[in-house]
Every structure is written in C-alpha cells, then in structure tokens.
Design a protein that fits this description.
About 25% of the residues lie in helices and about 25% in strands. It is α/β, with parallel strands linked by helices. The protein folds into two domains: about 20-230, Alanine racemase (TIM Barrel), CATH 3.20.20; about 250-380, Lyase, Ornithine Decarboxylase, Chain A, domain 1, CATH 2.40.37. The strands form four sheets. It has an eight-stranded parallel β-barrel with strand order 2-3-4-5-6-8-9-10, surrounded by five helices. A five-stranded mixed β-sheet has the order 20-19-11-1-21. It has a five-stranded antiparallel β-sheet with strand order 12-15-18-17-16, with no helix packed on it. Helix 4 links the parallel strand 3 (about 65-70) and strand 4 (about 85-90). The longest helix is centred in the middle third of the chain and has 19 residues, at about 180-200. The radius of gyration is 24 Å and the shape is elongated. Bound molecules: pyridoxal-5'-phosphate. Pyridoxal-5'-phosphate binds near residues 41, 43, 226 and 229.
C-alpha cells in the first residue's frame, strides 16, 4: 500500500521500503562463507536512501562494516549511534586526522605523508590509527601503485602509531568479468597481496569486490565484499539482472498541488516549452523539482503514474515543482486528477512502474546518480 505514511509539511516525499532493504542485504550476506564479511557502502547518504536509518537495518541483517566516501559521512554515522567499523574510501587531508581518531574512522591510505602524520597524532593521543591501504591496480583513481606496495610498506610500517587493518582495490570494469581489463586488475591485486604476505607485512582484511564483482565472480571475494548499489535494489549492470534478483527500495511520490484547464494555446512553465494543444487538457502541478533531484533534462520527456496509468510531464521542470498533462481524446476518457491526488515519480502504482533505470536512460546516466539525486532534499519516509 502506498501513502500510508507521509510528511506533515510537504506533498512530496521519498519512500524507503525497509523490508526490501533487509532482503537485499541478506542476499549479499548469503553470497559469503562464514569467515567472509559484508561491508555495506552507505556513501552519499546511502545513495540517497538515508545513511543512519539504512545502516541500522543493515547492521541488524548481518553487515560487519560500513564504508563512506567522506570523513563527515563517517561522523554522521557515529552521531547516529553506529558503532561498527567505518572505512572512509578516500585519503582525506591531514587536517582531518583529529576527527578520524576522535570518531574511530579508518581512512584509506596511499601516501606516506598522510600515514606518518596519522601515526604521529595517534601516538601523541595514546591510540593506534587503523587504516586500510588502497592499491591502484588499473582504474587510475586512488591507491599505491601495485608495483610499489612493498616500498610503501617499508616506508611507513616502522611507525608504531598506525596499523594496517585492510588492503583493497577497486574495479573499473567488473561488469565484464571475463574481460581482459578486469582479469588484469585481479592479477595485479592478487600479486600485490601475495608479495606483502611474503615480505611479512600485515594485510588485515583483503577486499576488492563491489556489487557487480561480488555477484559475477566468486573467486575474488577474499575476506570481504563492499556492496553498494545492489543493497538498494538497483542493478549495477544489465549483466546481473537475470542472475541476481533485487527489490527496489526507494519510491518517489507526490500529491497534486493544483489542477487547471488552460485554454488551447496557453503555455506551461518557464519558456513555454509546452503549449496546450487542444481543448480538455488538464494541467496538474506537483511539488518536486530539480532541487529535489528531478533533473531538468527530463523536461517534456518523462512520465509519472496516476491511478496505475502513465501521464505525460509537460513544460520545463522548475526548481521545486513540475507539471503534467492529462489529455482527453475522442477515443478515451481519462480520469482527471483532483488537488491532493497521489502520483508516483519513481516506483509502482497498480500494474505500472517507473524505474530508476528508465529515468537514468532518459537522462543519459546511471541509476546510481538518479537515486543519489532524490536524497538531496525530499523527506524520507521509512515503511
Ligand atoms: C562506491 C564504491 C563501492 C560500491 O560500489 P557499488 O557498485 O555501488 O557496489 C565499492 N568500493 C568503492 C571503493 C567505491 O567507491
């Protein structure tokens, strides 16, 4: 049932299905052996789904660790009462070190300058600064180059203020798990880890899989997988869709804030990019805009659902509102909307559905970006 709960101050909201989040989390947990861990990636406010609320559900479903992109995302989880290990998937500026140590957040480390500054500060506070070492194996984003891992560890491992709790890399093309590029990253990572073990350097938890790799390639799961998008019920690639069913967690709903029947030829919205083409067209206003993540590039190109049917969005999407048109034709009488009626921007209504993937395709982007966007301003309702 939709619309059971909604915000008291706004006729637009994001619905988060706790049950779906739980079942998706369990599906990833079930991929793992008893000694393998699940790290849930909750960066960008859990891909727009609300980091603290989602982390609580994931924790209750067997998540062992959380990963975030920024130090402040980690602080937010701590303030929200999350006590599991938290990995920051980047090396922040050295000025973040006190905050990391205060909140027990593990940075990713790949420069000796940061590692040693981190160690110095930890010693002066009488603690040990735990970190995960990022290894660059081919994506050319962050990490110690795979051929330099031994030199790097020799440079920093003398320091008693730091401890390597994990080593990891990140794949650029894991959706092509038989591809040459992916295999090469695997090989470089395997060899870098083996070399460190052989040289006697502590590696801690070894991990490399994101959602798509953890589904497609059981051989690289190592000690932990880092699942993100799949937890939220979104497919990372068309390749995984047939083999790993997931349930979408987020829906986006709004209620009609005004209805009108402008005369034929009247314009709608900024710039009049739509004009009422005939008599008997109802224009309905909905209170969601591009500041809520509904990209303006969708203007005049997307549909929303009303009573289980598609209606066309018309005119330029505004910052906070957009309009739809319900058209009567001689062949078909379409039910008109009333002020306060419910419409669905993302999700199911009766037999109809608008998916993140449909919207991503229209925008020329990926479902990740669409989901993150809806987290920007809309209130989240957990059902
Ligand atoms: C975002 C991210 C992930 C999660 O990726 P998904 O495709 O969402 O599973 C894992 N590891 C790193 C380093 C990331 O940046």
């Amino acid at each position: 049932m939709i619309g059971r709960k909604e915000p008291s101050t706004r006729w637009a909201w994001v619905e988060i299905d706790r049950g779906a989040l739980r079942r998706n989390t369990r599906a990833f947990k079930n991929l793992l052996g008893p000694r393998q861990r699940l790290c849930c990636v909750v960066k960008a406010d859990a891909y727009g789904h609300g980091a603290v609320e989602c982390a609580k559900i994931m924790h209750a479903t067997g998540c062992d660790m959380f990963a975030v992109a920024t130090v402040m995302e980690g602080v937010e989880l701590r303030r929200g009462g999350i006590s599991e290990p938290i990995l920051v998937l980047s090396e922040p500026p050295a000025t973040a070190i006190d905050t990391l140590l205060e909140h027990s957040l593990m940075p990713s480390v790949y420069t000796s300058e940061f590692a040693l500054a981190y160690g110095e500060r930890a010693v002066s506070l009488g603690v040990v600064g735990r970190y995960h070492m990022a290894i660059e194996t081919g994506m050319n984003r962050i990490g110690v180059h795979y051929a330099d891992v031994i030199d790097f560890r020799r440079e920093i491992d003398f320091h008693r203020g730091i401890r390597c709790d994990g080593v990891f890399t990140h794949f650029a093309t894991a959706d092509e798990s038989n591809g040459w590029d992916y295999k090469l990253q695997c090989k470089r990572f395997d060899e870098a880890v083996a070399a460190m073990h052989e040289a006697g350097f502590e590696c801690g938890i070894v991990h490399c899989d994101n959602t798509v790799a953890s589904i497609l390639d059981p051989s690289m799961r190592y000690d932990m997988i880092r699942a993100g998008i799949g937890l939220y019920g979104l497919q990372p690639s068309e390749v995984t869709r047939p083999v790993f069913p997931l349930e979408p967690v987020m829906s986006v709903r709004a209620r009609v804030t005004r209805t009108a029947h402008p005369a034929m030829g009247e314009g709608v919205g900024y710039g009049f990019t739509y004009r009422v083409p005939r008599a008997r067209v109802q224009i309905c206003t909905l209170p969601i805009g591009y500041a809520d993540g509904l990209s303006r590039t969708l203007s005049n190109r997307m549909d929303v659902l009303f009573r289980g049917m598609r209606v066309r969005q018309v005119g330029n999407i505004c910052m906070d509102q957009f309009m739809v048109a319900i058209q009567q034709t001689s062949q078909r009488e379409t039910p008109e909307a009333e002020m306060g009626d419910l419409m669905t921007v993302i999700g199911r209504d009766g037999g109809a559905e608008i998916t993140m993937d449909e919207m991503a395709q229209l925008r020329g982007t990926i479902n990740y970006e669409v989901a993150c966007g809806f987290g920007m301003r809309l209130e989240k309702i957990y059902t």
